[in-house]
Amino acid sequence: MDVLPGIDPRAPLLDVTNLHVEFRTQYGVAKAVNGANFRLAPGETLAILGESGCGKSVTAQAIMGILDTPPGYVTQGEIRYRGVDLLKLTEEKRRKVRANRIAMIFQDALSSLNPVYTVGFQLGELFRKHRGMSRADAKKRSIDLLEQVKIPAARTRVDDYPHQFSGGMRQRVMIAMALALDPEVLIADEPTTALDVTVQAQIMGLLADLQQQRNMGLILITHDMGVVADVADRISVMYAGKVVEEAGIYDIYARPAHPYTKALLESIPRLDMKGQQLSVIQGLPPLLTDVPKGCAFNPRCRYARDACRQDPAPPAYAVAPNRTARCHFFREVIGE
Ligand code: SF4
After folding, report:
1. pTM to 2 decimals?
2. CA-CA distance, 169 to 140, in Å (whole number)?
3. Residue 45's pLDDT is what?
4. Which residues' Cβ are closer than 6 Å to ligand 1?
5. Best substitution site from 242, 303, 311, 331 to test ligand 1's pocket, by max atoms within 8 Å of Cβ?
6. How far apart are CA 112 and CA 115, in angstroms?
């Protein structure tokens, strides 16, 4: 269905360039995203990783066009979907893109579903509203989708209310809703944070399977490097509103080039470290209204030296083809 005249199927699926987002608050201007760049191809999984407040969810909200304005504003940059800059579209067109082309799954499925309607009604409404289906066809399609996300006894569960589902099953319903209109891009914002570990693995496996079947581009937003290890193709690590390292999954795990990435990796619990103390990253991310001079990571960085405390902040150095790191001393970090 052509929801957006002017799209070029040969253009990159999603191309985010020099994205800046700021929040104008009574305490000052918080630069939540400060020049983010990344691309996403069909069938590719990009993980955006970092601690709370590093700008990853705000990046997703900017792509979706759901920033709270005020206080949030996109002040610079481009978000191109198949060649069309979404930031230049009218709100009506963005709504169409959101419904049909780029979908999002949120962390808290319970608050994202309407408690007074059955899941079948909520799913069916998407098909009735956007595809003009009859009530009976919409219900049939809703059952199909619930089966695709592996909800047992979908034919009967379609008439249940959200509170009658477990946390993991509710997240499956959310995935079904996000996929209902066959989006090309799916953004999953901490999709497994509220779930226990075994259910987390099932949901990640389900997302990976559905992505392959549909050849979707998937953006996974998470603070947990352990969660993305098996499913991501590329990782963008964010800190204080900037992408500080971007690389393929193998490079990031084998030889991180930024001290922040390295510290995140060291803080993942490992079975072969039984009895040893888990490594933590000392200190807290900076307030975005008061980011340190020079490299924003310098107060927490074990490699920091004088040059790191001076402006300008490190640029995105090319570590290798398709690999960047914002660290003056990336060669030392990577162990070259
Ligand atoms: Fe650490 Fe300096 Fe590299 Fe920043 S530029 S990450 S402070 S070594």
Report:
1. 0.90
2. 19
3. 94
4. 258-259, 295, 297-298, 301, 303-304, 308, 314, 327-329
5. 303
6. 9
What CATH number labels 14-101+183-268+279-335? 3.40.50.300
Ligand 1 mutation target, pool 258, 291, 298, most atoms within 8 A of CB: 298
**Residue 272 pLDDT > 60:** yes
In the numeric block, which tokens belong to residue 294? 């020079």
Q: Where are the domains of the chain?
A: 14-101+183-268+279-335
Residues 151-165 have pLDDT tens digits of: 999 999 999 999 999
Q: What is the distance between the alpha carbons of residues 8 and 198, in angstroms, rounded to a whole number?
A: 41
DSSP secondary structure of 70-107: TTEEEEEEEEEETTEEGGGS-HHHHHHHHHHTEEEE-S
Distance 24 CA to ligand 1 centre (A): 28
**Residue whose C-alpha is closest to residue 141's, from 126, 151, 156, 162:** 126
How many beta carbons lie within 10 A of that of residue 246, not counting itself? 28
* CA dist 67 → 115, 160, 254 (Å): 24, 32, 35
Cα of 325 to ligand 1 centre, how many Å? 10
